[in-house]
Write a structure and sequence with these properties.
By secondary structure, the protein is mainly alpha-helical. The protein contains 10 helices and 3 strands, in the order H-E-H-H-E-E-H-H-H-H-H-H-H. The protein has helices spanning about 5-15, 25-35, 40-50, 70-95, 95-115, 120-135, 140-150, 150-160, 165-180, 185-210, and strands spanning about 25, 55, 60-65. Helix 4 runs antiparallel to helix 10 (about 185-210). The chain is globular, with a radius of gyration of 18 Å. The two termini are about 30 Å apart.
Length: about 220
């Protein structure tokens, strides 16, 4: 297995909360499960440490980073800034087939929601937004979002446990697609803003339900 595959596998487990915030990552368990040497696992963990998704403590071990609320807000700002900028590019470049692709991804979200599969719901949510960027010719901007918003993404996934959140997500996606199809930039920007900022209003309840997943102070990483 290539180093990139090891990195992506561990990162996917972190972003989908298979590996919970604050949980220890044991190199030996990963090497045995994947049938690989320690070197690519260490390399992957150093990359994830540079993305603030794991805390590597010399001579002590490695843990999945707790979610940093300040970083969630900064990452939300990054995503909002890029997404609101890309909508006009999508409108200029899109064809009816692109709108159909977006609707297809929403239909897959509906299936995942009905099946109670939050990981699949999250995957198709990402695919829909990525489609907007790729159609607009801004795929590298989406790659920045995917790489730099791990705390925000984990917060979003936790929000899926709240009543009505998945249904609201689908509703907002359909409203956004309708605005894009009509080439209504103003409405698309408003809907996108509502969609992104919704998490801000859900944060207190998410933290209350999952206090063990969040940093309480700047020393949490070293208090293992």
């Amino acid at each position: 297995m290539a180093s990139e595959d090891v990195y992506q596998a561990i990162k996917d487990d972190i972003l989908t909360l298979v590996k919970k915030p604050g949980s220890e990552i044991k190199v030996n368990e990963i090497t045995e499960a994947m049938g690989i040497s320690r070197s690519p696992v260490r390399d992957a963990l150093m990359r994830l440490n540079s993305e603030s998704l794991v805390d590597v403590l010399p001579q002590r071990g490695c843990w999945v980073s707790l979610i940093d609320i300040d970083r969630v807000e900064e990452e939300r700002f990054l995503r909002h800034s890029l997404e609101k900028s890309v909508l006009s590019y999508f409108i200029d470049a899109s064809k009816s087939s692109d709108i159909s692709r977006l609707l297809y991804f929403v239909s897959l979200q509906k299936e995942a929601q009905q099946a109670g599969d939050e990981a699949a719901f999250f995957k198709w949510d990402d695919e829909m937004h990525q489609c907007i960027f790729s159609t607009a010719g801004m795929q590298r901007c989406w790659q920045i979002i995917a790489r730099e918003t791990g705390h925000y993404r984990r917060m979003r996934l936790l929000s899926f446990d709240m009543p009505g959140v998945l249904e609201k997500n689908i509703e907002q996606h359909l409203e956004l697609i309708s605005a894009l199809e009509k080439k209504d930039v103003a409405s698309a920007l408003r809907i996108e803003g509502d969609h992104i900022f919704k998490l801000t209003f859900e944060s207190a309840e998410i933290i209350k339900a999952n206090p063990e997943y969040f940093r309480r102070n700047n020393n949490d990483e070293i208090n293992k």
